[in-house]
Amino acid sequence: MLDAFTALTRGTRLVYSRGLRRYVFLPILVNLLVYGAMLGYVVGNFGAWLDGWMAMVPEWLSWLSWLIWPLFVVSLVLMVFFTFTLVTHLIAAPFYGFLAARVEEQVSGRPPLDDRGLLRTGVDALGRELVKLAYILPRMALLFVVSWIPVVNLVAPLLWALFSAWIMAITYLDYPMDNNKVSFRDMRRRLGSRRWPTLTYGGWVTLITWLPLANLFLLPGAVAAAVLMWERHYRGLASGVPPQAR
């Protein structure tokens, strides 16, 4: 059985093989530029953000500052991570869509169902990213609010971790599904019906994104891994059938 870790190791080797590596280096270069700009901004403002959060802790909870401070740090780092991830994926989406299509053709011997032209594919990929943002941002905002509520925010890091795994799964597994004309709603149904492979895959991708600089070279492998996971776990699921009915 293909598990998430095996898919990621196979996918990483695959994208740097001859014939596929040319689809990898341009998004890496673009993301390096974005990475440098955002890192400089975060380093310059992180201290002020943290001070502002700590100033909002009520006096009656001051005795818990030893615990609240690290929780605030973790929550803030996770929010910065999500912001960076959303921006880089919005930029890289057209490149990753092309990469997923080429990987699928190589591993399955057949092209994806997508019959759109090159330009239309790129434009639609950006549109699909906006659909993802419309799904992600309200939930991210809710978690942000939870992170500010005294006592309740003690569970915020765990919620952010689970949310991160789910969103990473949606972000990357959507590339082969979009290429095969699976709607965003149906994609979420399919992922929900295979929660264990979905969350383990998303969890591993989340860990990869936390490797500074190295993540830019490993994330294309996550795209190829998504194609492998699509072939093994999700392609055969009936379209539009609720998870509980499967």
From TrEMBL:
It is found in: Cell inner membrane; Membrane. The keyword Ribonucleoprotein does not apply. InterPro entries: CysZ-like, CysZ/EI24, Sulfate_CysZ. It comes from the Bacteria. The keyword DNA-binding does not apply. Keywords: Amino-acid biosynthesis, Cell inner membrane, Cell membrane, Cysteine biosynthesis, Membrane, Sulfate transport, Transmembrane, Transmembrane helix, Transport. The chain crosses the membrane at residues 23-43, 63-92, 133-152, 198-230. It is a multi-pass membrane protein. Belongs to the CysZ family. PANTHER family: SULFATE TRANSPORTER CYSZ. High affinity, high specificity proton-dependent sulfate transporter, which mediates sulfate uptake. Provides the sulfur source for the cysteine synthesis pathway. HAMAP family: CysZ. This is Sulfate transporter CysZ. It comes from Halomonas aquatica. The lineage of its organism: Bacteria, Pseudomonadati, Pseudomonadota, Gammaproteobacteria, Oceanospirillales.
